[in-house]
Amino acid sequence: MRTCQASSAGKLTVVLATIVVVLAGCGGGPSPRAWAASVCGALTPWRSEISKLTSSTDEQMTAQTTPAQAKENLVRLFGGAEQASEAARRKVERAGVPETDNGDAISAGFRSSLGKMRDAYGRARDTIDGLGTGEPTAFYDGVRAAVATLNTEYDASALDTSKLNSEELKQAFDEVPECH
Predict the structure, then answer these.
(1) Taking a C-beta distance cutoff of 8 angstroms, is the pair 74, 57 a contact?
(2) Is residue 81 a contact partner of residue 53, using CB atoms and an 8 Å limit?
(3) Integer distance in angstroms from the first to the last C-alpha of the chain?
(4) How far from the centroid of its chain's Cα atoms is residue 99's Cα?
(5) Residue 178 to residues 78, 89, 163: CA-CA distances in angstroms?
(6) Max Cα-Cα span within the chain
(7) What's the gap between Cα 35 and its chain centre?
(8) Is 0.90 topped by the overall pTM?
(9) What pLDDT is stored for residue 25 in this prediction?
(10) Where does residue 164 rank: exposed (0-12), middle (13-18), buried (19+ CB within 10 A)?
(11) 71 vs 59: CA distance, rounded Å
(12) What are the pLDDT digits (tens) for 88-129?
């Protein structure tokens, strides 16, 4: 009798597992509102961190510090921006793919944009880290060039939200509290 019950339980487990797999393949992604909330939840602290780091960078450019001090601070700041961008990219990745038209492309666009921003900060950090500090004028010229390149790359990596092609997502981004 116990063998029969164990066999029935095993069959039930297989049936339930099959149903879960089938249902997971049917839709599976988060709703547009849930996805927008997750994405905004990832981007809000990222924007705050980037804003703080940008202000600190501006202060470093005008502060009365030695080139060596400025280099150390700027390398740390751009490294922080790189890490913050990667953290936001990972959170957007964990948000999954929204259950909407073009959900895959939209999710990939957000992740790609954040990845490009991360890489731009990393290149700026590496460029500044490679600058010599013996000649202040040359150092600060190099910093200005690195920041100009960063700004160009950053602007080029921005996600064009007008191409979301999902009215559901546009509405969700307008409505969810995490996005305000």
Answers:
(1) yes
(2) yes
(3) 61
(4) 20
(5) 26, 17, 21
(6) 89
(7) 14
(8) no
(9) 39
(10) buried
(11) 13
(12) 999 999 999 999 988 999 999 999 999 999 999 999 999 999
State the Cα–Cα distance between residues 177 and 135, nearest whole angstrom.
50
DSSP structural state of residue 100: S
CA distance 59 to 53: 10
Nearest to 35 by CA among 113, 104, 112, 118: 104
CB atoms within 10 A of CB 145: 13
Q: Which of 110, 140, 139 is nearest to 36 (CA)?
A: 110
Distance CA 118, CA 92 (A): 14
Query: Helices 103-129 and 67-94: crossing angle, nearest 10°?
Result: 160
Residue with tokens 């959170």: 91
Q: What is the mean pLDDT of residues 15-21?
A: 32
CA dihedral sign, ordered 116, 118, 121, 126 = negative
- Please determine, for residue 130, whether its predicted confidence score (pLDDT) is greater than 70: yes
